[in-house]
Structure formats: structure tokens, C-alpha cells
Recover the amino acids of this structure.
């Protein structure tokens, strides 16, 4: 089950076979059934995870009770609450499996071990952190400067396989709009075609 993880790592850094095995052996495989939580608000996040199968949503519930989806994580994606994981404070997020899922989890202690004993691993996480910051910055700019319709079109074009796996409600929560507004956008797009 570590084949996908090894491919993901190799896309970012070069490790010897020994280093790769040592690092991958630090991960624990876990099965998360559909509608189950990998993390709930108020818990301390004790892992960084790599999705090998399935689909997760990472979300927050605001004071009005509305879900705000930060991101979806599917095969070949990393998943965590980096704030809670890093600071060892209670999470403000939920991480829920939307499908039966398999993840590989690494603990903070094992990650620190890897940093100390496999120096290239720090570069791996630095590169991934930079890519995450770029994606979050772009998403913030898009949310501030683009219409909901253009954000939906870009999301559908960027993640066509995801659109098929998500409900309208989940996509709407990601876009920060209501399900009814999303339905109107989809109708409007269909008429244009």
C-alpha cells in the first residue's frame, strides 16, 4: 500500500531505497469507513496523513452552523490540521471520510525522528508546505476576486473526477455558496451550452 506514497515522495525529492523504506515504515495504515471521522473539532490532531484510497472533506462549522469546506483530499493527497498538529492544540476542524477510505498516518514523534535521521525529509515537507501555501493564497484571491460561477467552472475543470464524487451540497460548501445558488449556476451553464 505504500506504492502511491513512494511515488508521491519521489515526485518531490530523491531518496535511496533504504531511506525510502525507513521513512515509509514510519507510517501506520488505517481504514476509515464512509461517514467516519479521522479528526473532530476539539481533538488534538496527532497525525499527518496520506490518502491512498477514498475521499475526505476537511471542514469547519461556523457560529451560524454552516459548514465551510477548506478542501477535499482524495488519492495521492496529504491531509491534516496543520495548526493543531504543529501547536498540539485542539482542532477547529473536522476531517470526515466521504467514501470508504485508506490512509497512511505519521505521528509527530515519527516525523521528528525522520527529520533527525533522514535529513532529506525536511526538504520534502518544506516543498509540500510551499505548494500548500501557494494553493491557499490562490484560493483566497479567487474567493475575493471571482464570481461564484467562475469559481465553480474552474473547480469543475481542475477536478473533474471530484465533481462526480461529491454532492451539490459539498461543492456548494467548498465554494462558500448555498446549494440553491449552485443549482442556479449549473442551470445557467447548461443553458449556455
Amino acid at each position: 500500500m505504500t506504492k502511491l506514497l513512494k511515488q508521491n515522495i519521489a515526485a518531490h525529492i530523491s531518496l535511496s531505497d533504504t531511506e525510502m523504506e525507513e521513512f515509509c515504515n514510519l507510517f501506520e495504515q488505517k481504514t476509515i469507513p464512509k461517514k467516519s471521522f479521522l479528526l473532530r473539532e476539539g481533538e488534538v490532531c496527532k497525525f499527518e496523513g496520506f490518502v491512498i484510497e477514498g475521499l475526505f472533506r476537511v471542514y469547519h462549522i461556523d457560529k451560524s452552523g454552516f459548514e465551510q469546506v477548506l478542501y477535499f483530499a482524495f488519492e495521492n493527497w496529504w491531509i491534516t490540521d496543520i495548526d493543531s498538529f504543529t501547536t498540539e492544540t485542539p482542532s477547529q476542524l473536522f476531517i470526515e471520510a466521504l467514501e470508504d477510505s485508506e490512509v497512511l498516518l505519521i505521528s509527530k514523534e515519527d516525523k521528528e525522528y525522520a527529520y533527525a535521521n533522514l535529513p532529506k525529509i525536511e526538504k520534502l515537507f518544506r516543498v509540500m508546505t510551499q505548494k500548500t501555501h501557494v494553493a491557499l493564497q490562490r484560493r483566497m484571491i479567487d474567493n475575493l476576486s471571482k464570481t461564484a460561477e467562475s469559481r465553480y467552472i474552474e473547480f469543475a475543470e481542475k477536478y473533474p473526477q471530484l465533481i462526480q464524487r461529491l454532492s451539490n451540497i459539498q461543492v456548494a460548501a467548498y465554494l462558500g455558496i448555498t446549494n440553491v445558488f449552485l443549482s442556479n449556476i449549473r442551470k445557467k451553464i447548461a443553458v449556455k451550452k
Remarks:
- The chain is about 50% helix and 20% strand.
- Strands lie at 28-32, 37-39, 48-53, 55-61, 67-74, 78-79, 94-97, 101-106.
- The CA atoms of residues 92 and 102 lie 23 Å apart.
